[in-house]
Amino acid sequence: MSTDDRAAFLSAVLPAHVEAERALHTGDATPRLSTWSHADPLTLFGAGVTYRTGWDDVRGVFEWLATTFTACHDYDFELLAADAAGDLGYTVGIERYRATSAAGTEIQRTLRVTHVYRREADRWRIVHRHGDHVTVEA
After folding, report:
1. What's the pLDDT tens digit per position in 25-61?
2. Structural domains in the chain?
3. CB under 8 Å, gap of 24 or more: what pairs does 105-114 form?
């Protein structure tokens, strides 16, 4: 991938990703739902749930997850790697957030995340997310 192609891919996906994650951690799943493809195959390896496949199951996790948050105080995505070729692309990074749970407690998490994107008619859409908690700094 050329530097220009990579930059175009990242400018198409990263702003929407950051907006979607901030909204999710405020209790609004709608922006995250809009960044995902609704066409199979789709997979989710979530940090707090077992794997899910298919739009109905993936959407259900995101809708539930949004109900567990009420406020996002800080969100950062550190991009570690990315590329795209043809109609597939990926990002690998570290998500750090500080939010308030629906129970009123403050949560601070660091996740390792990988997203796989598929180019569809109108834009790049996520077809896979793998996220897990970073527990120990090596």
Report:
1. 999 999 999 999 999 999 999 988 889 999 999 999 9
2. 3-133 (3.10.450.50)
3. 106/73, 107/69, 109/47, 109/133, 110/134, 111/47, 114/90
